[in-house]
Amino acid sequence: xxxxxxxxxxxxxxxxxxxxxxxxxxxxxxxxxxxxxxxxxxxxxxxxxxxxxxxxxxxxxxxxxxxxxxxxxxxxxxxxxxxxxxxxxxxxxxxxxxxxxxxxxxxxxxxxxxxx
Length: 116
Description:
- It is built from 6 helices and 5 strands; from the N terminus they run E-E-H-H-H-E-H-H-E-E-H.
- Helix 4 packs across helix 5 (73-85).
- It has a domain at 43-115: Winged helix-like DNA-binding domain superfamily/Winged helix DNA-binding domain (Arc Repressor Mutant, subunit A), CATH 1.10.10.10.
- The protein has a 3-stranded antiparallel beta sheet. A two-stranded antiparallel ribbon has the order 1-2.
- The two termini are 34 Å apart.
- Strand 4 (89-94) and strand 5 (97-102) form a beta hairpin.
- The chain has helices spanning 14-26, 30-42, 46-55, 62-69, 73-85, 106-115, and strands at residues 4-6, 9-11, 60-61, 89-94, 97-102.
- The chain has 116 residues and is of the alpha+beta class.
């Protein structure tokens, strides 16, 4: 950023302040950034990323995810709830088990692009 020298201090000039105010006016709200941050936190765990990869093939019962990832039911249940609360997956109850599927399968493409 270029600065104007005023009284020996480097202070932004009025043109710079105008440009900054224009940029600031386009920044989304804090609530939007909080939501984005929460969603990134939800996929910051390797187990949750694996669950998303598994679900890209279609709906799976929680019991299948438990078997595939060789983790305790309580651990998988916790991770599924985090992903569900973040809006990545949804579940449908069938008997004693819940079957999960991706809400937006494009999340897996995004993750794959990050891996490359």
